[in-house]
Specification:
This protein has about 425 residues and is α+β, with helices and mostly antiparallel strands. The protein contains 14 helices and eleven strands. It starts with 13 loop residues before the first helix and ends in a 15-residue tail after the last helix.
Length: about 425
């Protein structure tokens, strides 16, 4: 940075901007509407970071439009993702860091999303524990959460935690920032919604839901438990009548806060831990999805004993999404590459999948890697003529031998239950 710090209107230091940029640089990300890359900012901080600090400290900073990018959601659907410019992400990181230090200590212990020292695995582990204690689960899905957050209520929630003038000023400006569509047209928020993908959005979502749901639920139902990861919520109840009443109360509460439950995705689920204890009438739902895992009755082995539990494993939706990603990689067409080249290409992805989805039930990933091995077998048939007209079992048998003698070639071959 250049020049000495002068007295500014707002208490923002240059060191805060520098630390924020380091974090943004670590998270990487694509450029926004201005096309400015992170490396360009790193190469010339005097040109980009000093003016940002100067404008933020004087109150003259205004964000640029957010670039909308559509990403695959599954089943052919697309999810809009808002990408601010690199400079705007640095500015958001400055405020997000300060805001997080003020509000995080007051958040509920049942809130896990985008918080320091908490992860999705912690939420899944707690959910699994509570599924053994409670017989019923309410699987909540808020319809278009990030698109329907009311700006007036959100700013009121932020002001409940802090009266810092620059935080309230810039949060309001980011909420009012326009969104640039794929065709170049600008869309204005009209008092609701926050772009999913901004640095500040997860912190704002946690502040909003802490008041709207967490504190309200703990006050009205102190004997019940729940897990929340951003807008994904699971509530545990003792019996069906109680679950239906709690669901009705939650629906009214969210309606008061200008939110709506998805009518098709929100449901009451029976956690069938014991076959002998069945509720009266027909139970429609006996499984639910939470953070990419499906909870349903499974045989659980613990301390040398087997019993019927209600435990998580990789969901079919997650398997389908990853299979689509593998399909787009066209592994079977890379006949010019060796098997080592393919392993080098996919191993970083496989390592991440195994670490996330294999923590609670590694064998639940067999279906995913069965499809992957079929693609490798097709690659063998395309690359080597001797497999062309022979049965598929021959090429799969060759892969089986390779996985036995070269067990570290692919990341998942290190685990015997995931080999071909």
């Amino acid at each position: 940075m250049i020049f000495n710090e002068e007295h500014k209107t707002l208490p923002i230091k240059k060191s805060q901007v520098q630390k924020a940029f380091k974090k943004v640089r670590t998270n990487r990300g694509s450029p926004g509407v201005d096309g400015l890359m992170i490396q360009e900012v790193a190469n010339n901080p005097r040109k980009y970071l000093y003016p940002l600090w100067n404008r933020m400290a004087s109150g003259s900073y205004f964000p640029k439009p957010v670039k909308e990018v559509l990403i695959p959601k599954g089943k052919g659907k697309m999810r809009p993702l808002g990408i601010p410019t690199v400079i705007d992400r640095v500015a958001q990181q400055v405020v997000a860091t300060e805001l997080e230090s003020l509000v995080d200590k007051g958040f509920s212990p049942h809130s896990f999303g985008y918080r320091p020292h908490k992860s999705a695995h912690d939420a899944i582990a707690q959910c699994r524990k509570h599924c053994f204690r409670y017989s019923w689960v309410i699987d909540l899905d808020i319809k278009g959460f990030y698109d329907t957050i009311d700006h007036e209520l959100l700013l009121k929630a932020v002001s409940h935690h802090t009266q810092e003038r620059y935080i309230l000023l810039y949060v309001e400006r980011w909420l009012k920032a326009s969104v640039q569509k794929g065709d170049g047209s600008l869309h204005h928020p009209n008092g609701k919604g926050t772009p999913q993908g901004g640095v500040i959005s997860p912190v704002l979502a946690n502040i909003f839901m802490d008041i709207v749901f967490d504190k309200w639920f703990e006050r009205h139902y102190p004997k019940l438990q729940f897990e929340r990861y951003a807008d994904d919520i699971v509530v545990h109840c003792y019996h069906q009548k109680q679950a239906l009443k709690v669901l009705n109360d939650i629906r009214k509460r969210l309606s008061q806060c200008r939110l709506e439950l998805h009518p098709e995705k929100t449901r009451v689920v029976y956690c069938r831990r014991n076959q002998k204890k069945r509720p009266k009438g027909k139970v429609v739902y006996q499984s639910f999805d939470f953070l990419g895992h499906t909870f349903k009755p499974r045989i659980v082995r613990q301390r040398g004993k087997q019993f019927l539990g209600f435990s998580p494993s990789m969901s079919q939706k997650s398997i389908g999404r990853i299979n689509e990603e593998l399909f787009r990689m066209d592994i079977h067409k890379r006949v010019q590459s060796s098997l080592e080249d393919i392993a080098q290409l996919v191993n970083p992805k496989i390592r991440g999948w195994v670490r996330y989805y294999g923590k609670f039930r590694l064998s639940g990933m067999r279906m995913l890697f069965r499809a992957f091995h079929r693609r490798l077998a097709k690659w063998l048939r395309n690359k080597y003529r001797r497999y062309h007209r022979r049965p598929w079992a021959v090429s799969l048998g060759h892969l089986r031998k390779l996985s036995k003698y070269y067990s570290t070639l692919f990341e998942h071959w290190k685990y015997p239950c995931l080999r071909p």
